[in-house]
Specification:
Blueprint lengths: L2 E12 L38 H13 L3 E2 L5 E5 L9 E5 L5 E10 L2 E14 L3 E5 L9 E5 L6 E7 L6 H18 L11 E11 L9 E4 L4 H20 L7 E6 L4 E7 L9 E2 L10 H10 L4 H10 L5 H7 L3 H13 L3 H18 L11 H13 L4 H14 L3 H8 L7 H14 L1 H8 L5 H12 L6 H11 L3
Parallel strand pairs: 11-12
Antiparallel strand pairs: 1-9, 1-10, 2-5, 3-4, 3-14, 5-6, 6-9, 7-8, 10-11, 12-13
Helix pairs in contact: 1-4, 2-3, 7-8, 7-9, 12-14, 13-14, 14-15
Bound molecules: zinc ion (ZN).
């Protein structure tokens, strides 16, 4: 029997705020364990939470970018469960009345655009972190330590509709979402570092069937690759169980990235297990129209609109647009260059070619280099004016990236300007003719192609500073043709 795969994702994104969701503790990553804590985030009796306005703004900004409807009133709730990483024994989250609903995100898989529904976007606080000694997980560990630094860090949960039909679509969704979150600056969205996390609900149903099959929830996917592999493995498992007439248990499963299999953890909790009720210490979030408009204005142009502009206004090929939009920093660099130099394709070529090659070799990101867009543009203008050759510019660029010196200084120090003095070129040509009598003879006897060899020799002697066109012209004159 043929089955159809149904996948929905629940994504947790850490919001880029300085302080936690309900207290003033720092959210800084990497601090000594249990140093960014206070009575509020460790759940001491009598404390009261205070909402972090910045976190709400970032979540609204995201919801708007995801085309969601921002609810007039949303309410925090207590989600009760007992686990050592949760000092209050409840997590403040949003349940019945989330911040935003009914959005969508477009993804592209195998060249085809597909619209994926967003069920909701809501705010909550993160739990602490358990470190297990003696084993990678709690199973087999001799002791477990808890670090409450992460407790209370603002999280945004984004829930997709079960619109995804394959592990590849799920991966594409995560990548598109990561890109969007980074672009609007709400989350650094690094799956490997845990600032972007994802759980997936997956089920299979016979092709043509309308009713959903029983779903399982897959956890512990710490990279885009893991999302794909875990869902592939789980899809296969469902298919095997179902085709043998078996039944899928609704449960949470853990992806083991060593065996690349999913392992059953516990039967899935149902909402009633959490005994949700409205958080009595917090008022509802009721954003005014003015505030929403202000937040919307801070978003700037979204990646999709930028892409359209790169293709239609700048007439860039799709592959170029894709590379230039890969990271917000690269896009900003490109657009900064463009303000000073109105040749999009030339800039794109340099960014995608020599600059990217240098970054890759040295394992750098564009935000780590000293070369400013203005410097790069200065170099491009020197090529246009004929002050330096395009070929030498490649060397100059690398030198500027390495040394942090300005383009002008490098050109001046190393005498890299093109030779415009004909006399100087003629001297070099004389030298080349003298040194290569065989090739000169061949050329004179009618082997025209040899001229390129002689041009090459002149270029070599001039250290690339002569203009090849001028050299060829002068050479032909000199050799009487
Ligand atoms: Zn605190």
């Amino acid at each position: 029997m043929k089955y159809e795969t149904i996948i929905g994702l629940e994504i947790h994104a850490q919001l880029l705020t300085e302080s936690k969701m309900f207290c003033a503790c720092s959210t800084k990553f990497g601090a000594k364990p249990n140093t960014n804590i206070c009575p509020v985030c460790t759940g001491q009796p009598g404390v009261l939470p205070v909402m972090n306005q910045k976190a709400i703004e970032l979540a609204i900004k995201t919801a708007l970018a995801l085309n969601c409807k921002i609810e007039k009133s949303s309410v925090f709730a207590r989600k009760n469960y007992f686990y050592p990483d949760l000092p209050k024994d409840f997590q403040i989250s949003q349940y019945e009345l989330p911040l935003a609903t009914l959005g969508h995100l477009d993804i592209v898989v195998e060249g085809k655009k597909k619209r994926i529904g967003i069920t909701r976007v809501h705010l909550e606080e993160d739990a602490g972190k358990l470190v297990h000694k003696g084993a990678a997980r709690i199973m087999g560990a001799t002791e477990s330590l808890v670090d409450y630094n992460r407790t209370g860090v603002p999280l945004m949960e984004i829930v997709s509709e079960p619109d995804l039909r394959s592990p590849a679509e799920a991966k594409a969704f995560m990548e598109t979402l990561q890109h969007l979150l980074q672009f609007i600056g709400v989350c650094d969205a690094k799956m490997e570092e845990g600032s972007l996390r994802c759980d997936a609900n997956i089920s299979l149903r016979p092709a043509g069937e309308q009713k959903f099959g029983t779903k399982t929830e897959v956890k512990n996917m710490n990279s885009f690759k893991a999302v794909f592999k875990a869902l592939k493995a789980e899809e296969k498992r469902h298919e095997e169980v179902l085709s043998e007439g078996g039944k899928i248990n609704q449960e949470t499963r853990f992806f083991d990235d060593i065996t690349e299999q999913t392992i059953g953890m516990r039967s899935k909790e149902y909402a009633h297990d959490y005994r949700y009720f409205p958080e009595p210490d917090l008022v509802p979030i009721e954003p005014s129209a003015d505030w929403l408009a202000k937040i919307k204005n801070t978003s700037g142009e979204l990646p999709e609109a930028k892409r359209d502009r790169f293709l239609n206004e700048y007439k860039l090929p799709e592959a170029d647009a894709e590379v230039l939009l890969a990271t917000p920093a690269l896009t900003a660099y490109f657009e900064e260059c463009l303000k000073l130099y109105d040749h999009p394709k030339t800039i794109a070529n340099w960014l995608m070619g020599d600059l990217t090659a240098y970054l890759k070799t040295n394992n750098l990101a564009i935000e780590q280099i000293n070369l400013t867009p203005a410097q790069l543009v200065e170099m491009l203008q020197m090529i246009d004016k004929g002050t330096i050759s395009g070929k030498l510019a490649k060397t100059i660029l690398v030198e500027a990236l390495k040394s942090g010196k300005t383009i002008k200084d490098i050109v001046a120090e190393q005498g890299l300007t093109q030779i415009s003095d004909e006399g100087e070129i003629k001297n070099i040509i004389d030298e080349v003719i003298e040194k290569n009598p065989k090739q000169v003879g061949e050329f004179r006897s009618g082997k025209d192609a040899v001229v390129m060899f002689l041009v090459g020799q002149v270029m070599k002697l001039s250290k690339g500073r002569a203009k090849p066109d001028a050299v060829q012209k002068l050479l032909r004159q000199k050799l009487g043709q």
